TrEMBL record:
Residues 180-378 form the B30.2/SPRY domain. It comes from Cottoperca gobio. It comes from the Eukaryota. SMART domains: PRY (SM00589). The lineage of its organism: Eukaryota, Metazoa, Chordata, Craniata, Vertebrata. SUPFAM superfamilies: B-box zinc-binding domain, Concanavalin A-like lectins/glucanases. This is Tripartite motif-containing protein 14.
Length: 394
């Protein structure tokens, strides 16, 4: 029994015993169970971590769905707003083009009517002359030529050549340029000044007696006077004005006045008519040259801006055919633009809490050279920028 030495089972199977320490069976089982228990605990911990990871993933999944839904809704809303803005801007531009086409074609038709009337007069005169030339009775010929006032050679005014610049399509080119700019930087172009475009109705009650207002209240003329009532050749007088019916005290307001080839005109903004007695006694109280009136005047190619009797001549490269006026009450700024090219002519700082009225002065007509009207530019059924954009936000 003493010679017997315990050996491991593995050594019996593979050969010579290696003299390593041998464990009893229960000890080996206990060790292996301890290792397995440690492994089980590690696996359980790992499983718990995996379960927590799954929970975190599920939370992230839900968050992702919610976030993408929120982004989708917000982005869709942004696109909806952009579509509202773009649809309105496109409609506005088409209305500007339509209005420009209407105005220019009507103006051309009016000019054609004038030429046709001249042709009719010429044809009538030629017919009379031709009839007289056929007269063989010399006495009757002399009587008829005297009766028709054809004894002397006619002194006819030359037919004025058509100035093609009067129908310059710069406004339409401006529309196209603005749309091109929009494609480059969309958000930088809204709202446009044309988004605030209105056409103030003229108040005939505020008009000077020598002014005539059209039936639609969009035009003001210098009333033709008999020779006996001929006025001083003073180019302009700010008393000869008419105000818009409605005033404003807040917001942004934009309107355009068509001046075309008119040699003298005056357009601006004022707090309203002054008392007639004051206007007669104090020159500084005359409408248009007091401290609550701001205007721009054109006379024979020169442009002046004036406020409170202080005048400044402007440097304008190209003749203004449509004048744009932008009044931003909140910013205290009044700006005059070449409405076709949308270039700034001049800006005033305006600090005024009184109601302000658009003001037009067609200026005195001298020798029939300044008979053209001042006309409010307007578009049919304008798209209301503020109502539609506010509705889109809601």
């Amino acid at each position: 029994m003493e010679e017997r030495v315990p050996v491991c089972c593995l050594c019996l199977l593979v050969g010579m015993h290696k003299n390593h320490k041998a464990f009893q069976l229960h000890e080996a089982c206990a060790d292996f169970k301890s290792i397995l228990e440690t492994t089980m605990n590690q696996l359980l911990k790992r499983r718990s971590e995996a379960e927590h990871a799954i929970m975190d993933l599920e939370s992230l999944y839900s968050q992702t769905l919610k976030s993408t839904a929120d982004f989708r809704e917000r982005i869709s809303d942004k696109y909806s707003r952009i579509r509202v803005v773009l649809d309105g801007d496109e409609r506005l531009m088409m209305q500007i083009i339509d209005a420009e086409e209407t105005y220019m074609t009507e103006w051309l038709e009016a000019q054609r009517g004038i030429m046709e009337a001249q042709i009719k007069d010429i044809d009538s005169l030629r017919a009379s002359s031709k009839s007289l030339l056929r007269e063989t009775n010399e006495l009757r010929f002399l009587q008829q030529i005297t009766a028709h006032n054809l004894c002397d050679p006619l002194d006819l005014a030359p037919i004025q050549e058509v100035d093609k610049d009067l129908c310059d399509l710069e406004k339409l080119r401006t529309v196209e340029r603005l749309v091109d700019d929009l494609s480059v930087a969309l958000s930088q172009h809204f709202p446009r000044m044309w988004s605030y475009l209105s056409s103030p109705a003229l108040d005939s009650k505020s008009a000077h007696p020598k002014l005539e207002i059209s039936q639609d209240r969009k035009q003001v003329y210098w009333r033709r006077q008999p020779v006996s009532e001929a006025l001083s050749p003073q180019p302009y007088d700010s008393q000869y004005s008419v105000l818009a019916q409605e005033s404003f005290t807040t917001g942004r307001h934009y309107w355009e006045v068509i001046v075309q080839e008119k040699p003298y005109w005056l357009v601006g903004l004022t707090t309203g008519p002054v008392d007639k007695k004051d206007s007669q006694n104090q020159g500084s109280s005359i409408l248009g040259v007091n401290n609550t009136s701001w205007w721009i005047y054109h006379g024979d190619g020169k442009y002046l801006v004036c406020h409170d009797t202080q005048e400044k001549q402007l440097s304008v490269g190209k003749r203004v055919r449509k004048l744009g006026i932008l009044a931003d009450v909140q910013k205290g700024k009044l700006s005059f633009y070449d409405a076709d090219a949308m270039t700034l002519l001049h800006s005033f700082c305006v600090q005024c809490t009184e109601p302000m009225y658009p003001m037009l002065n067609p200026c005195i007509d001298v020798n029939g050279l300044n008979t053209q009207p001042l006309t409010m530019f307007w578009i049919k059924d304008p798209w209301d920028w503020h109502v539609n954009t506010n509705g889109a936000k809601e």
